[in-house]
Amino acid sequence: MTDDLHLTLQETHGPLTVAALSGQIDFHTAPRLHTGGIELIEQGHHRLILDLTGVSFCDSAGLSALIRLWHAAQETGGSLALAAVPERLVRLLTLTGLDTVLPIHKTAAEALAARPQGA
User: How far apart are CA 117 and CA 119, in angstroms?
Assistant: First the structure.
């Protein structure tokens, strides 16, 4: 898989940030996801919501990148939530039990609404 991956900042509210992903998250692009997410966390945006509307594929390397971002956010007192997750990826998250760790929301707006005030 070689489809490009793009991480685009959609909106920020202090430490709360919505970033949209598009493309494929695989062995070749997962490091870019991890690096981009870490940069956001280091800039103080440690409460991340990833809008996955544009993600067409995710393999085990992509899952690993998501887990690593979740850990990085947790280490700063933050969090990671997923929004608009493609059904195929929802099944993968459920099979691996990651749906119990990574909150999944139907839309980014729903994920924003689910965050505590001030978070």
Answer: 5
pTM over 0.90: yes
Q: Is the dihedral of CA 83, 46, 102, 61 positive or negative?
A: positive
> Which residues of the chain form beta strands (DSSP E)?
5-13, 16-25, 47-58, 79-83, 104-105
In CATH, which of 3.30.1070.10, 3.40.50.720, 3.30.750.24, 3.40.190.10 is domain 5-114?
A: 3.30.750.24
20: which 2 tokens? Answer: 């949209």
In whole angstroms, how far apart are CA 104 and each of 1, 50, 58, 86? 25, 10, 15, 11
| Euclidean distance between CA atoms 86 and 35, whole angstroms | 22
- pLDDT for position 115: 76
